[in-house]
Each structure stands twice: as structure tokens, then as C-alpha cells.
């Protein structure tokens, strides 16, 4: 049946072996041919979700290092009151390092917007768009070390190499632009799991996150690998014409199957990508007002602002999953006041700008924006009175657009902000929820590998329906 | 009953078990979408299937019984758990007696399906196929021609033997095993630190393949090489230790704060890789619960985990944790060397102690000797006043250096090239002959000319080699005898070339000098010391400013003199010690800065230097008491002997060793080490996987790895040989007889030719697990040599070519693509072995700012490029390289646009295309030189032909040649070299170049 299915569409060639593999194993071969968009068949061909989607794409703003929830969005009056006293509950069995007594937040909190959300003075611009945001204040993970925690939030597994969330989503839904990768990660880090945080692992390579630049070089200098033709376009076209002629003759001669046919298509696709990518990544055409909106006109906000603007451009172009990374800044074991002040000042305006821009372009409702770090920080101090340790037991992420309730807050930590307590949301639950917002059932989005079916959420995860609009 | 007791409280419910079994039979394997719970986070499983294995579920006793029954049924029925048969090759109709046994099985199966196989491929195709398959490099055109023209009946067999004997064979086939062994040069996961010595394991694998190490031994060495008898003292001992690196190579959560979890996760990784690599079993699934699909109970998991838990893999688990390394040498040699090191250290300690005691005695002797010498020196007439060489000197081509030679010491020395001259105005108090005395140092003869009032007065003065430029090399020398009138004179030293270091200068009337000399001689004779010593002491006391504070004491009471002598001696010795330490490292660059306390330095110079009264450096040993001398000499000789006879230090390798106290592990519910442990399980192997073989008894004080390894390679083990020969089949044909080489469980593929698999495994065992023989067995078949020509009828019956009625073309792996490009372009460096990592062992290879210490520019075979987890070489990643973090049994064969982008735009392909085009031109020109008749217009034609021969091993067709020439002509405006480079790139990017057909 699969063979006939494949030969029914003229364009299956692009897939080659990969396509057969997908047809055999993929989410869209569950005996539900209606899920397959017959007009486009390819690894990145758009596919219909399991159920109507609330969001079409994800922009994940990743704060590498672990921003402190109690200094940003999780206001704890008792922490301020009991500053300097011991934490009255038991500390976790496994801590990353020794911690001292409670440390009240050095920043003042105020309520903002119609929703009255508490935001510290670290995020004045985000505070202005707070009515678009949906806070999850009871997130929890499992490992207090950076590497394991990064892998956990990106792949769901801390000690195995598993496909990244973006890979799963692209695998499940394909992409809306066949001339660009479906999963792009801007300025990713090579530390703490590195490429494994955006790798497709055992999923087909088409779902591997494509890096655009990398942490450590300015985002203004970022580019895709091997996307710049070293020779003029017409010269390369002539090369391609000759190459394709040779390849076609070889295919006919050798009786090579779909892989060889796919190879011919892949060269054409590459040629088209080369044309599409520079256009999408070139921000010269953006107005001065837009650049200002993202803070690209200011040195301090320029780098992350450009990442956010690129994210919007990729989103407009139909890329399915886009990640921006602010790395590796948020790890204030000491120097909390200076460090968090500087970090927040770099991202506050760009984040607010992105949300305003998406909103004004009518894209916000179908774009799920997710903000957060690999964990939060302890309410207890570390390194004297100006630092906090890693805390995977309770931390805050916020989301916007894409079918989440605006101006909403879900879950809570204890009185001091250490443990998630009410309406707990595990990282697996967050993954399940993000998939659900994209219209996918995390228990159905599976891939057969090494004798069993794998999921992003493994055997865990519950969808948090309460945050859905 | 080979089944360990799983749960003593469990009651058997036969009815439930049979119900389950019948259900299972009705619905087949477990439904889709049921994922195995991973052990990283214990949480109660929710789905229905897990209820069966969930210890806390109400139906627990029944569930356990059901599982056991199900497992027993699978064990009874699943093909992989059955003993290997002794199949006889069938006799397919219409075949001749020359047909090989393997082909009998294959042809028989084809006949049963009505499929007619393709004929033999042409010789060019065969040679390309075999060469790429066995060496990962394309054959040269000459090799193809030689094979095409070889009419001997065993020509093909000779090709196979030649390729198997090539070192490139080991480089190619070791890489296959590296996939299975999840080889990498860095840890990956959370903290990406370097495995700086992993390459030694890789190089061992290459050697093992090239040397055709029997595979049973190959396996045993990797699991338990350190425990094999050979590890004690045989020449293979180093390899035995190195091979166990297999167990260490896995990624670990190095910053895991929960240290117990770190160890359990690591053991789990080892259990998983041993299970998959050698037995094709997903034993790791049974960490949390009895295996859902295969008959591996959680007890059995912990039996095997106990073996690994009794094995030491880490040097330290403290954050950041570090893997264990051992000396790659025989255990006996390691012990002997350790004893040798200890003996050397003992002797060195004894020598140091004896030296200290002897020094103390010597110092006491010095003090005793100093008193009369100081008396004598005090009574000696004072010398004429002298001056520092740098004072009021007129310099030409020389400089004053006050910075490098000790506190308060300034010297005049060479400032550049050419003539140097230093002049002073010195005063003669009386008329008559004078000695010009100069204190100078030089480590070579640098004679100077002396000028008196502008006229040459003496040649070859100060020509002594004083041993060094350092202060201890400063010596008083008589530079000239000058006849002077009373009054000032200009006296100069001149030299064309480098100058000695000049420290002091003085004019002494000859008579005065003689009188002093006579007194000194008398004192010297009285005290039994050289007269010059008395003079030196007096001079030091008079002239060295730093001795001023003691000068007054010289004529004081005797007791003060003794105190003075003792003080001088001890300070001098302290300074000498500091100096000798510094100079032991070689040339002291900035001794003043490097001395902790530079102040005693001047004392040392004055008193212990060659000009000092206590100068003993040259004759230190002679100055000691005879007993001391003998003892020190004996100890020094012994130390030297031990040092010189020290065995060379062996290289360090990633390796394991047994824990000091091996022990059994308790079952942990859901694999969670934090929950209360259950009953302990005796160390062992998953016994049901090996009907007919038993694990040898594990000694109490051993981990059990050796027994595990012996059990794995037992002739009757139903999995190990089957799994290995299937891997070899897979690597040859691109697909195994079992399509899932690392999963022979119920969820894995079923063998397409079960009898052939058993026949191959039995044959392999019977012939001593001889891998090269297995290659020959396979490659000499018709199946291996078939043409890839498609056939409509056969395709209709067997579209996937499971029957091997033709050769299935496949794309080269990443390494072979890159190596082929480099081989054709002429850039390939065929150096074997070694590491291309640039950073230090266990240092971070990548960091959070995207720094990446790995370099991939070396034109070495891809096997040798660093394998950096978390940041694999981009080219590798694009072309479906192995994951390098987990055991991988089959490379993917994707076709994606980034591959095309790489071939179009990467600097690597551009550079190699240009290099190849240049090489093509050179070769064609060289050939043209032999055939002068060749015309220039034929050169293009010749280049196209040469390109096809080099890259594809054939001549181009007429239309291919015309298309090539047309392309080059169309790009002629870019320049001829550039146009040919662009053309070369097209051929390197062509499908034919990267396809094994």
C-alpha cells in the first residue's frame, strides 16, 4: 500500500529513501491518508495535525543559565520579610551546591496591566505587554546541573541523546516553507549538551535544527553554513545543469532507486534555498521604527534584538520552530544584582518588541512565544548575600499568543519560591502542552527506533488545559 | 529452571498467564505508541501495558506470573533464543557443483519465490565495489586495468586477498566497529571534556582488524582484557588493557550532583551497550521493569549491572567527573615499574638526607676554618683601591648592565656588534711598574687589547674562559704590566667582537703586590690553605661594600670573629642553595626576580663565588669528609643506576579495573536508586538468552567480567556469533540477514535466511572466529558479485531485494565520501594512527560560548578526525554520520538539501576541486611529454578522460566528454584553471562518484 501511495505523488522523489521511511514509520502514515497534504510530499511538507491547532509555529526565547523566578515574575512577600533567616522547609536531597539563608529580592515588584501581574523592575518593557502573557509559575524539572537541565528542557531526556522539541514538532507538522529549514536555532550554544539540544537524534536528518550563527559571535554576523555560493549564480546554474544531466544518466543506467532521484531534487532544493535564505535573513529593509522597536539601534539590546527580529522574519516565512538563545548569561551564583540587571536589560526591550510586532502584524495569535531558562534559582543565597544557586524544583516560564490565555497566571511555588506547589507543571507536561497547542497529541506523535516507539514526553506528560484560551 | 527468583511473594496464576498468552498470540506484538519508560526519571507509568509490570499495581502477583509465563513462551519460541542449528546447504536445481555454500542457501530461497538472479557485474564495477567496501577508497585506474586484464582463474580471489592485506582495510572496518562501540574523543552530554587517550583504543581496533585478531578474543578483550591471563605478562598485555576502553567510552553526566545516580546511569549505559553490541539485546530496558518484549527480567538486569557495578570505570565522580585511565602495560610490568619508582624515590630521599647531614658537617668545618683565615686576612696589607668597572667609564659599543647579575652588581658588557671599547682614567700613586688587574667573566675566550693613553700596551689580555657569565664566573686576572708615571692615565680595553663581562678594575704597584703576595704565602703555609685564598678574603673584606658592616669586627675580639665567620658561612650557604636550585633548571633568565630573597646573593658572590674565600663549588665533594664522600657517591651511583634503568613510562589509556570489593546489587524498583532496595541478585548474565550455556562461576573477589566474556564467546551462545556475522553481512551488503543488527529481540527484524545465518555463525566459530576468512566467504559468492541491473519481474516479487537477486547500490558513508575526494584530489595524507585533538586531556572541547577546540583541516583519513560529541564535524553530521553517543548498528541514508549545499558551496569541496583540476593538468602534461605528437586541442579531451579514470575508474562516453568540454568552454572567461576546477567539482558531486554499485 505504501509503495503505491508513494508512486501516486509525483514529487516523492525528493524524499528518496527518507520518504519511504517516513511513509513506513511516520505520524502521517497511521492509516489516515487524509492527514497527508497531497499537494506537497516531502520531509518538510506541511502535514495536518491530530486536532485543530491553536498555534502554527513556536518562537522559543531561551535564557541560558537559569534566570531567577523570585527576582523576575514570581513575587514572594514572605521572602522579602524573612530575608536573612533560614529556609523553614527541608532543602532538596540533592543540591548543586551549598546554599545559605533566604535572600530577599533586591528588586522591587509592582503589579502591571489589567491582569495585575507582578513584575519586578528588571523587566519594565515586558511589564508593559504583560496582558499578552500567560505565566506558568510552577514549572519543575529534575536535574540541578546546567547540561542535564538543558538537555531535559530541549529533548525531554537528560542522560540519553533524544530528538529536540523543535525536531519533533517539525517531524509532526512539516514546515510551511519548503525552501528553508523547518527548525532554525539562532545563535545556539555549544556548551551544556551543545548540538544535542537541537539535534534530531534518531529522527530523520531533515528535522535537525539548523543553526543560524552561534553563541559567541554577534548575531549581526550570523549565517547558515554553506549557504553562500562561492561563484556567480549563472555559473553555479551551469554546473548544476551538467551535474543533473550526469546524475540522471547515472540513475537510468544503474537502475538506482528513489535515493538517486531524491539526490537530483535535493540539488534543486539547495539552489532554491540559497536564493530564499539571504532574503529572509537580510534585515536591511526593515524600517527604522521596527529596528527601534527591537532595540537594534542600541548597543546593549542590539544582539538579542536582532535575534528576535530574525525570529519574526523566519516566522513570517513559514519556519515551524525558531529558537533564540541568550547564552550563557543568567548563572548568577554571585554578583546577582549586577548580572541579572545587565541580562534583563539586554532582553527586556527586544522581547516586548517581538510581542508588539507580532501582535501588530496579526501573527501573535498563531505564533506561540515561549520564554524561560533551564531552571530557576534558589530563594536561598549563595556566595554571600549576592547570589543564588540552581533550582529545578520550581521556576517560571511565560508564554504568549498561540492559543494560551493572555493576562493569565497558572500554578504557584511555596511561600518562598523554592518548590512548585500548586498546579505543578513538569517539563514533560510543558512539552505535552506545547505539542497540544500545535494540535498534536504527545502520546500519538511517535517514532519507531531500535525496536520501540519513542515520544518527546517518553511515558510522561499531561497537557495543561487550563492555560489554553 | 534457569530463571532467577524474581519476587518471592509472587504467586503464580496460570489462568491469567494463559489468558495473556492467548491475547498476545491474537494481537501480535504490543500495540504501537507504547514507549519504554526511561530510567532517567522514576514516575509511575500510566499506560495499561505498564500495569503488568508495575510492582505497586493491585494485580501484582498475577502480573509477575503472567510476565514469567510470557517470557518463557518467548524464550521457547523466538528464533534468536534457540540454539544455532547445523543446517546443510541445500542443492538448488540447475546449479553446478562449483556453487558456493552461501549461494546454495540464497539461490534456493530465490527459486522458491520464482526469482531469477542477475548475472555477474563487469570487472570495473566489481573492483570499485570491493575496493570501496574493504578500504573506503576508490581504486586507481591502474588497479582496475590490472584486474580487467588478469586472466588467471583466481583473479577475483587475489583482489580480495590484496585488499584484505591493505592497511586501509583496518581503517575502513575498524570504523564500522567504532559505530557499534559509540566511539568518541569527548564525553558529550552535559560537560564536554576530552577523552584525550580514546584514540589509543581506536588505533588498537584498527590493528586488531588488520592483524585479523580472532573475534572471540576481540570481544573478550573489550569486556575483560584486564582480567585475562595475558594481561599479566604477555606482549599482548598492553592491548588487553587498552581494549577495555570499550567500557569507558560512553557519555556520562559528569556534573550530576547525585553521585549514586551518576554511577547507576553509567552502569546502565554499559549494560545497554554490551547487550546491543554483542548480543543484539535491549537489556537496558529492564532497568525499571521486566522487559516488555523480551525475556529479560529486572532481576537479570541487576545481575548484569552487578558485574559492571563491581567494575571501576571512573577515576573520580566529583564534579566534573573524570573517566579512569590506566597504564597500557602488563600488570606485572606495571607493578615492577611501580616498585622501581618507589626504590628510586627511596634512594633519592636517602641521598638528600645524607647530603644534608654532610653539608652540616662541612659547614661546621668551614666555620672552623674561617676563623684563622679571617685572622690572617685581617693582618694582610690592604690592596690598592679599585673601582667598579661601570664607574666613570667611557663606553663605545658596550653597555652597563645592572639588572641581570645579582643585587648591586653592575657589569660592562657587549651592547651590539662591532668594536667595543671601555676606558677609565686611573691614577698611579707612584712611578714604576704596575699591574692592571681586572675582574671579568666569560664562558669563552674573549681576549682584549689594552691601551695606555691611546697607545696599544698589551694584546690578548683577559683571555681566560672563566666558565660562565654569571657572577660566580667572575675572576681577577692580570690584564697587563704597565710602566707608569705618577698621575692619571687613560687605560682602555678594546675588542672587535663580543666582550667579556667586566666587573672591577684596579692598578697595583708591582712592589706592593709582591709584598702582599709574600705575606699571603706565609699565612697560607701556616694555615695549610692556598695563599690566594687569604688574598681573596682580604680583598672581599676591603672592597665589597656589602661586607662593610663586618669590616670593623675584623680587628675586634676573637669571639666576635668566630660569630662573624659562622654568620658568613651560613648566609653564604643559604644563598648558594637558592642559586643552585635556580640554575638547576638551566639558564636563569632573571635570577634577581626569581630568588625569594635576593639580599644574600651578594654574600654568596663575594664569599662562595670562585673569587670568594669559601669557594668550594668546584671542589665541594673534595671538601667533604672521606666517609661522607663515599656514602654520597654510593647513593648517587645507586640513584643514577635506578634512574637510568627505569622502564619507559607506558602510555595511559581509558580502561577499567575491578573494584576492590566487588558485590552483588539489589533490585531497585523502577531502576530508581533512591527507593528502598529489594533483594540482592547474584552477579551474572541474562541466562535465558543463552540456552545451553552457563556463565562460569564468578569468584567472590572478581567483578565477573571475565566470566561474562567467556560466556559471550562460548561456542554454543545462541547470539554472539549470529550477531557478529550478521553485522559483517550488513556492512558488506548494506543490509543484514537480520535487518536490525543490534536488535535480535522480538521487536527486531526476523532473519530473511535463518538457516544461512546459522550456517555462517557455525562456520565462523568452527574456523576460529576468523574475520578475514568470513570476508572471503562472503565476497567470493555470486551474491556479492551480481550486477545491480534492475529487473521488473524480480522487483515485483521482491521489491526490497531481500533475496539478493541483484546488488543494491548504496551511497558511500560520510568518511568514504571525504576520503574519496581527498584521494582523487591527491591531498590525502595516509599517515595512520595518532590523535588530532589539540587541547589537553579531560579539558573542555566545546564551551558555552561556542568555542570548539576540534580542528578538521587535516587531510588525514576521516577515521582520524576528532569525534566530538555535541558538536560533530559539520560534514559528518550532514552525511548521516553515527551519533557517537550511543551504539549505532546502521548508518542512515538520507538525501537532504544540506548535502547538496555542502557539495556546492563548502570551502572543502572548492579547494579539493581546484587541487584535483591542477593535478589533472599535471598528469596530462606529463603524459603529453611522453607523446609529443599530442596537440593542444587534445589536451582538454585528455583531461576529461583522466578525470573519469581517476574518479570513476572508466572512460567517459562520447556525450559525457562533449558535455564536459562544452561546460569548460562555456566558463572559459573565468580562466582555464577556474573552469576546470568547476568541472572537477561537478564530478565530485556526481551520484556515480559516491555510489557503491
- Largest interface between protein chains, with number of residues from each side: A-B, 98 and 97 residues
CATH topology call of the domain at 361-622 in chain B: Jelly Rolls
Can you tell me the residue ranges of chain B where pLDDT is under 50 for at least 5 consecutive residues? 1-59, 583-593
Into which percent range does the helicity of residues of chain A fall?
25-40%
Shape field of chain B: elongated
Number of helices of chain B: 37
CATH superfamily of chain A: Alkaline Phosphatase, subunit A
Mean pLDDT of chain B: 83
Largest sheet of chain B: 5 strands, antiparallel
What low-confidence regions of chain A span 5 or more consecutive residues with pLDDT below 50? 1-40
Mean pLDDT of chain A comes to 87
Q: Beta-strand level of the residues of chain A, as a percent range?
A: 15-25%
Oligomer: heterodimer
> Taking strands numbered 1, 2, ... along the chain, how are they ordered across the largest sheet of chain B?
6-9-14-11-12
Amino acid at each position: 500500500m505504501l509503495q503505491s501511495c508513494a508512486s501516486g505523488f509525483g514529487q516523492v522523489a525528493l524524499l528518496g529513501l527518507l520518504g519511504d521511511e517516513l511513509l513506513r514509520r511516520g505520524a502521517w502514515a497511521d492509516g489516515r491518508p487524509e492527514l497527508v497534504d497531497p499537494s506537497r510530499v516531502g520531509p518538510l511538507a506541511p502535514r495536518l495535525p491530530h486536532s485543530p491547532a491553536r498555534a502554527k509555529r513556536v518562537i522559543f526565547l531561551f535564557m541560558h543559565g537559569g534566570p531567577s523566578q523570585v527576582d523576575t515574575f514570581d513575587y514572594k512577600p514572605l521572602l522579602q520579610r524573612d530575608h536573612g533567616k533560614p529556609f523553614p522547609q527541608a532543602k532538596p536531597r540533592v543540591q548543586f551546591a551549598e546554599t545559605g539563608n533566604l535572600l530577599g529580592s533586591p528588586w522591587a515588584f509592582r503589579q502591571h496591566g489589567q491582569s495585575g501581574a507582578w513584575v519586578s523592575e528588571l523587566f519594565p518593557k515586558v511589564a508593559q505587554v504583560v496582558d499578552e502573557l500567560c505565566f506558568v509559575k510552577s514549572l519543575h524539572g529534575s536535574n540541578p546541573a546546567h547540561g542535564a537541565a538543558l538537555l531535559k528542557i530541549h529533548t525531554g531526556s537528560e542522560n540519553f541523546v533524544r530528538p529536540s522539541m523543535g525536531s519533533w514538532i517539525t517531524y509532526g507538522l512539516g514546515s510551511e516553507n519548503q525552501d528553508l529549514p523547518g527548525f532554525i536555532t539562532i545563535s545556539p550554544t555549544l556548551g551544556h549538551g551543545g548540538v544535542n539540544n537541537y539535534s534530531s537524534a534518531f529522527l530523520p536528518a531533515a528535522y535537525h535544527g539548523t543553526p543560524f550563527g552561534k553563541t559567541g559571535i554577534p548575531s549581526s554576523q550570523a549565517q547558515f553554513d554553506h549557504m553562500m555560493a562561492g561563484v556567480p549564480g549563472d555559473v553555479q546554474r551551469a554546473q548544476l545543469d551538467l551535474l543533473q544531466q550526469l546524475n540522471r544518466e547515472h540513475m537510468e543506467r544503474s537502475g538506482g532507486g528513489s535515493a538517486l532521484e531524491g539526490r537530483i531534487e535535493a540539488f534543486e532544493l539547495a539552489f532554491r534555498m540559497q536564493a530564499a535564505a539571504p532574503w529572509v535573513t537580510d534585515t536591511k529593509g526593515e524600517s527604522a521604527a521596527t529596528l527601534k522597536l527591537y532595540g537594534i539601534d542600541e548597543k546593549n539590546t542590539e544582539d538579542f534584538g536582532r535575534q528576535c527580529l530574525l525570529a519574526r522574519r523566519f516566522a513570517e516565512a513559514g519556519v515551524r520552530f525558531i529558537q533564540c538563545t541568550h547564552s550563557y548569561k543568567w548563572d548568577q551564583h554571585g554578583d546577582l544584582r549586577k548580572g541579572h540587571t545587565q541580562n534583563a536589560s539586554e532582553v527586556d526591550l527586544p522581547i516586548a518588541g517581538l510581542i508588539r510586532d507580532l501582535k501588530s502584524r496579526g501573527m501573535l495569535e498563531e505564533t506561540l512565544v515561549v520564554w524561560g531558562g533551564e531552571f530557576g534559582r534558589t530563594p536561598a543565597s549563595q556566595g554571600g548575600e549576592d547570589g543564588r544557586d540552581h533550582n529545578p524544583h520550581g521556576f517560571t516560564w511565560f508564554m504568549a499568543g498561540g492559543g494560551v490565555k493572555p493576562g493569565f497566571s497558572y500554578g504557584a511555588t511555596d511561600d518562598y519560591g523554592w518548590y512548585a506547589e500548586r498546579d505543578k507543571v513538569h517539563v514533560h507536561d510543558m512539552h505535552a502542552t506545547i505539542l497540544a497547542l500545535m494540535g498534536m497529541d504527545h502520546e500519538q506523535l511517535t517514532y519507531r527506533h531500535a525496536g520501540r516507539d519513542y515520544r518527546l514526553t517518553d511515558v510522561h506528560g499531561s497537557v495543561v488545559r487550563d492555560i489554553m484560551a | 529452571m534457569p530463571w532467577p527468583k524474581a519476587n518471592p511473594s509472587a504467586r503464580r496464576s496460570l489462568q491469567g498467564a494463559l489468558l495473556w498468552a492467548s491475547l498476545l498470540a491474537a494481537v501480535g506484538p504490543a500495540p504501537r505508541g507504547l514507549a519504554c519508560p526511561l530510567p532517567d526519571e522514576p514516575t509511575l507509568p500510566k499506560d495499561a501495558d505498564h500495569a503488568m509490570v508495575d510492582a505497586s499495581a493491585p494485580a501484582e502477583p498475577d502480573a509477575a506470573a503472567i510476565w514469567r509465563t510470557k517470557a518463557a513462551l518467548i524464550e521457547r519460541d523466538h528464533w534468536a533464543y534457540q540454539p544455532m542449528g547445523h543446517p546443510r546447504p541445500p542443492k538448488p536445481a540447475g546449479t553446478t557443483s562449483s556453487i558456493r555454500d552461501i549461494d546454495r542457501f540464497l539461490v534456493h530461497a530465490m527459486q522458491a519465490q520464482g526469482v531469477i538472479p542477475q548475472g555477474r557485474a563487469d570487472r570495473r564495477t566489481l573492483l570499485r565495489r570491493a575496493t570501496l567496501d574493504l578500504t573506503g577508497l576508490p581504486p586507481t585506474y591502474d588497479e582496475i586495468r590490472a584486474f580487467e586484464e588478469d586472466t588467471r582463474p583466481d583473479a577475483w580471489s587475489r583482489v580480495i586477498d590484496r585488499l584484505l592485506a591493505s592497511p586501509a582495510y583496518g581503517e575502513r572496518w575498524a570504523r564500522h566497529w567504532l559505530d557499534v562501540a559509540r566511539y568518541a574523543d569527548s564525553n558529550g552530554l552535559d560537560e564536554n571534556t576530552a577523552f584525550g587517550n580514546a584514540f589509543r583504543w581506536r588505533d588498537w581496533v584498527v590493528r586488531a582488524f588488520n592483524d585479523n585478531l580472532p573475534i572471540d578474543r576481540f570481544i573478550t578483550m573489550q569486556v575483560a582484557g584486564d582480567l585475562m591471563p595475558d594481561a599479566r605478562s604477555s606482549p599482548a598485555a598492553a592491548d588487553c588493557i587498552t581494549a577495555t576502553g570499550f567500557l569507558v567510552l560512553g557519555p556520562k553526566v559528569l556534573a550530576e550532583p547525585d553521585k549514586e545516580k551518576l554511577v547507576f546511569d553509567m552502569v546502565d549505559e554499559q549494560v545497554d551497550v554490551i547487550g546491543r553490541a554483542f548480543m543484539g539485546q535491549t537489556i537496558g530496558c529492564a532497568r525499571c521493569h521486566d522487559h516488555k518484549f523480551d525475556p529479560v527480567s529486572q532481576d537479570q538486569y541487576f545481575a548484569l549491572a552487578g558485574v559492571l557495578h563491581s567494575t571501576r570505570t571512573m577515576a573520580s565522580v566529583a564534579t566534573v567527573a573524570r573517566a579512569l585511565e590506566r597504564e597500557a602495560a602488563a600488570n606485572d610490568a606495571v607493578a615492577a615499574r611501580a616498585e622501581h619508582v618507589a626504590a628510586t624515590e627511596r634512594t633519592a630521599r636517602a641521598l638528600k638526607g645524607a647530603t644534608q647531614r654532610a653539608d652540616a658537617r662541612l659547614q661546621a668545618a668551614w666555620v672552623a676554618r674561617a676563623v684563622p683565615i679571617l685572622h690572617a686576612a685581617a693582618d694582610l696589607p690592604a690592596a690598592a683601591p679599585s673601582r667598579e668597572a661601570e664607574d666613570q667609564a667611557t663606553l663605545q659599543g658596550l653597555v652597563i648592565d645592572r639588572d641581570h647579575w645579582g643585587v648591586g652588581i653592575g657589569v660592562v658588557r657587549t651592547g651590539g656588534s662591532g668594536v667595543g671599547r671601555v676606558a677609565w682614567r686611573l691614577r698611579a700613586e707612584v712611578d714604576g711598574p704596575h699591574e692592571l688587574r681586572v675582574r671579568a667573566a666569560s664562558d669563552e675566550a674573549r681576549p682584549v687589547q689594552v691601551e695606555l693613553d691611546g697607545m696599544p700596551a698589551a694584546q690578548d689580555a683577559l683571555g681566560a674562559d672563566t666558565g660562565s657569565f654569571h657572577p660566580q664566573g667572575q675572576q681577577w686576572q692580570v690584564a697587563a704590566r704597565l710602566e707608569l708615571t705618577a698621575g692619571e692615565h687613560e687605560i682602555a680595553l678594546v675588542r672587535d667582537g663580543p666582550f667579556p663581562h667586566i666587573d672591577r678594575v684596579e692598578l697595583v704597584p708591582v712592589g706592593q703586590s709582591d709584598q702582599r703576595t709574600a705575606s699571603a704565602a706565609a699565612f697560607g703555609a701556616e694555615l695549610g690553605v692556598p695563599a690566594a685564598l687569604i688574598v681573596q678574603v682580604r680583598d672581599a673584606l676591603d672592597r665589597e661594600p656589602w661586607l662593610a658592616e663586618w669590616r670593623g669586627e675584623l680587628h675586634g675580639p676573637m669571639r666576635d670573629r668566630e660569630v662573624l665567620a659562622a654568620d658568613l658561612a651560613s648566609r653564604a650557604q643559604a644563598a648558594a642553595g637558592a642559586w643552585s636550585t635556580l640554575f638547576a633548571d638551566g639558564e636563569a633568565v632573571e635570577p634577581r626576580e626569581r630568588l625569594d630573597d635576593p639580599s644574600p646573593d651578594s654574600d654568596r658572590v663575594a664569599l662562595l663565588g670562585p673569587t670568594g674565600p669559601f669557594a668550594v663549588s668546584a671542589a665541594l665533594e673534595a671538601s667533604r669528609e672521606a666517609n661522607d664522600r663515599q656514602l654520597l657517591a654510593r647513593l648517587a651511583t645507586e640513584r643514577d643506576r635506578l634512574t637510568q634503568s627505569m622502564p619507559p613510562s607506558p602510555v595511559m589509556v581509558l580502561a577499567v579495573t575491578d573494584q576492590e570489593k566487588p558485590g552483588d546489587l539489589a533490585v531497585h524498583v523502577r531502576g530508581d536508586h533512591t527507593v528502598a532496595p529489594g533483594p540482592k541478585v547474584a552477579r551474572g548474565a541474562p541466562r535465558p538468552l543463552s540456552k545451553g550455556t552457563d556463565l562460569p562461576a564468578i569468584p567472590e573477589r572478581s567483578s565477573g567480567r571475565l566470566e561474562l566474556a567467556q560466556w559471550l564467546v562460548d561456542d554454543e551462545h545462541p547470539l554472539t556469533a549470529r550477531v557478529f556475522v550478521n553485522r559483517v553481512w550488513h556492512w558488506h551488503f548494506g543490509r543484514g540477514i537480520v535487518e536490525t543488527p543490534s536488535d535480535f529481540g522480538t521487536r527486531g527484524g526476523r532473519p530473511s535466511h535463518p538457516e544461512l545465518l546459522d550456517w555462517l555463525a557455525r562456520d565462523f566459530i568452527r574456523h576460529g572466529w576468523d574475520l578475514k576468512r568470513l570476508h572471503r566467504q562472503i565476497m567470493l559468492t555470486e551474491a556479492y558479485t551480481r550486477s545491480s541491473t534492475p529487473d521488473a519481474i524480480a522487483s515485483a516479487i521482491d521489491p526490497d531485494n531481500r533475496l539478493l537477486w541483484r546488488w543494491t547500490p548504496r551511497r558511500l558513508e560520510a568518511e568514504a565520501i571525504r576520503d574519496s575526494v581527498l584521494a582523487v584530489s591527491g591531498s590525502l595524507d595516509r599517515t595512520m594512527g595518532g590523535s588530532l585533538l589539540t587541547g589537553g586531556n579531560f579539558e573542555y572541547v566545546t564551551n558555552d560560548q561556542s568555542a570548539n577546540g576540534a580542528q578538521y583541516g587535516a587531510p588525514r583519513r576521516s577515521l582520524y578526525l576528532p569525534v566530538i560529541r555535541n558538536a560533530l564535524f559539520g560534514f559528518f553530521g550532514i552525511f548521516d554520520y553515527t551519533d557517537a553517543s550511543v551504539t549505532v548498528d546502521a548508518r542512515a541514508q538520507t538525501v537532504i538539501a544540506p548535502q547538496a549545499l555542502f557539495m556546492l558551496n563548502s570551502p572543502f569541496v572548492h579547494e579539493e576541486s581546484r587541487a584535483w583540476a591542477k593535478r589533472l593538468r599535471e598528469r596530462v602534461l606529463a603524459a603529453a611529454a611522453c607523446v609529443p605528437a599530442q596537440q593542444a586541442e587534445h589536451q582538454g579531451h585528455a583531461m576529461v578522460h583522466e578525470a573519469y579514470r581517476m574518479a570513476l575508474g572508466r572512460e567517459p562516453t562520447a556525450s559525457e566528454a562533449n558535455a564536459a568540454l562544452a561546460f569548460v568552454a562555456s566558463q572559459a572567461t573565468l580562466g582555464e584553471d577556474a573552469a576546470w576546477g568547476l568541472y572537477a567539482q561537478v564530478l565530485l558531486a556526481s551520484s556515480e562518484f559516491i555510489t557503491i554499485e
